[in-house]
Amino acid sequence: MSATLYLIPCPISDDTAVADVTPASNQAIINSLDYFIVENTRSARRFLSKSGYARAIDDATFVELNEHTTSPTEIAKMIEPLKAGRSAGVISEAGVPAVADPGQAVVELCHKHNIRVVPLVGPSSILMAVMASGLSGQSFAFNGYLPIKEPERSKTIKRLESRARAEHQSQLFIEAPYRNVKLLEQMLKTLNPDTRLCIACDITSQSEYIRTQSVAQWQKSSLPDIQKRPAIFIIG
């Protein structure tokens, strides 16, 4: 029997119910699985419990794939059960797996071994930020984290701004939540006044904040409190 690797989305925010952001059809697939490749076992178990997992969670197998998983041999072992016919689910700490997420490594390996990969429907903060930004959704690029130190950070911000202008391509990036304020301050010093900037914070949660303005408008506004809150920034 052939196996399938299912990419299982989970809520982005802890205060969001699973049923509010994922279709009911996902649950039957989740209930069929007892092997999970996860970014964090504790959060994955909590997600399964909140989703109404029909099996005993203690009987399921969890292996962690995260920033500490650096050995190709270790990752290769994770798909051995799939090669033997046992399907598996990949669960990120938040949102969709394998996008800005270490789950990509096991997906890549499954393709190399002709193992079927199935993405399930669920919330992606990246796509939702683009949808709500009013900036170009025809062409956009996710750039991950920007450099922390100067002058590399300012140079990168200017380079992304130039690309947004020249190619009409929205430029997305993120920061560690505790450094959000410093990044925003740097952008407001570095970007041209007429450049548009979207701040999308706490997507899908009750405290969700999404707003797009020119840099000049942001400079005159009361800035949102985004410290220690997951956010996506878009230059357009």
Would you give an account of this structure?
This protein has 236 residues and is α/β, with parallel strands linked by helices. Helix content is 36%, strand content 21%. It is built from 10 helices and 10 strands. The chain has helices spanning 18-21, 25-31, 41-51, 72-78, 80-83, 104-112, 125-133, 152-167, 180-190, 215-220, and strands at 4-8, 35-38, 61-64, 88-91, 116-119, 140-145, 170-174, 196-201, 209-214, 231-235. The strands form 2 sheets. A 5-stranded parallel beta sheet has the order 3-2-4-1-5, with helices on both faces. A 5-stranded mixed beta sheet has the order 6-7-10-8-9, sandwiched between helices. Strand 8 and strand 9 form a beta hairpin. The termini are far apart. 34% of the residues are buried.
Secondary structure: elements and pairs:
Elements: E1 4-8, H1 18-21, H2 25-31, E2 35-38, H3 41-51, E3 61-64, H4 72-78, H5 80-83, E4 88-91, H6 104-112, E5 116-119, H7 125-133, E6 140-145, H8 152-167, E7 170-174, H9 180-190, E8 196-201, E9 209-214, H10 215-220, E10 231-235
Parallel strand pairs: 1-4, 1-5, 2-3, 2-4, 6-7
Antiparallel strand pairs: 7-10, 8-9, 8-10
